[in-house]
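Name: GDP-L-galactose phosphorylase 2-like isoform X1
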Amino acid sequence: MVVVVPYLHPVGIPLILLSSLVVAADSTICKVVSGATVFYCCCRILFVRMVTVKWLEDNCFLVKNEKSEQLKHSHFFLQGMNFPIYCCGSQSLEEDTSFEGLSCIAEEEQSMLDAFLLSQWEDRMWKGCFRYDVTTSEIKVIAGKMKFFSQLNEAQITDHLAKSEGTLPAWDHFVFDGMKHPEELLFCLAGSKKAKSELIHVASVPDSAILVIINVTPVEYGHVYLVPCTSNRRYQHLDARTVEMVTRIAAEINNHSFRVFYNCYRPNCSDVYFQACYFSDPLPVEFRPVDTLLSGGRRGIHICSVIDYPIKTISFQTTRNLKIMAVAISEICSHLEEKNVQYNLMISDSGKKIFLFLQQPFAASHAISAWECGGYFLFKNRYEFDEVTEDAMLKRLSCFSLNDNDFEAVKQLCCSIASKFDI
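Structure predicted for GDP-L-galactose phosphorylase 2-like isoform X1:
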């Protein structure tokens, strides 16, 4: 096994690559740890060529090209196929020591799920599955107190799944419309009755799994879709189990650079999917001051409103019980959808914190993405990138934000629902 530790990697963490590597950068062999050769690469991009692990190819991890047409039919896509399955253990999920149980890995070490996700994403990058190399995109901090980020990405197609007026395409059962080629599916995630999490090298996809699919037009390093799927129905509502599972994924990855996003562009009219990627720095919304709305009880759920920020935002945080926070947030989101309120979610801090961004009720207008709500903006031409100002971005966020009166009602709703569980 070879471990690559990049000094200036955008994620800032070691990658445990589950295959052999050919290092083409200016690298120096540093030391051997438990039989693993360690390189240090002094560059942002890893100049390596990955060779896929042989047991994956030998056991049909990648569906052959002749089966790509079967992606159009849900019954053929996964039926009889074997994939790597990461099974999240049940240990401490319902206990008040939930995050303590998940934090057995030291922060300086890399978790198994983090290593596996990044190794598979890098593998697809070197196989040419992406439309461009996002690691070469220019990024700058916009001058001003907010410290918004702007990225010049001339090849990016903003949310290539989105259609006109913010609507999203339907997909047949669990076949994700964003996946055009079978190799874009990296692996699957599922719950487990076993106490500890485990990676099963080859297995059939269980019911109620989450597909991990690359975004071929990535916003940042490691950009993937997390798509809940089931054999007999589509996920069209953000239920408690899905929120819990995705939050659990963030906790299992245990990397502070990892963010998970959810965009509710039009309530009740789109299938549920999440997006996730790695950011080298916290997003601007994470630095803003807050006003405490609910101080956690025995369950440890803390609710705050973010102040001095252009889009109305509420943060939820727990240090004890992931499951209870997920149930509370899913119920809150259900009420917002009933009111036809557009919203976004951002999961950060290894699953301990969730931001709820509140947009105006849908009125045939375009919505903005969760990373924009967090303060990360994409530009497709040099002129706009060079000329962008903080005032322009403040105005953009403000024009989508929920109004003050409705925000007060949402704050009361959040506290009322969370209080039922946080006793």
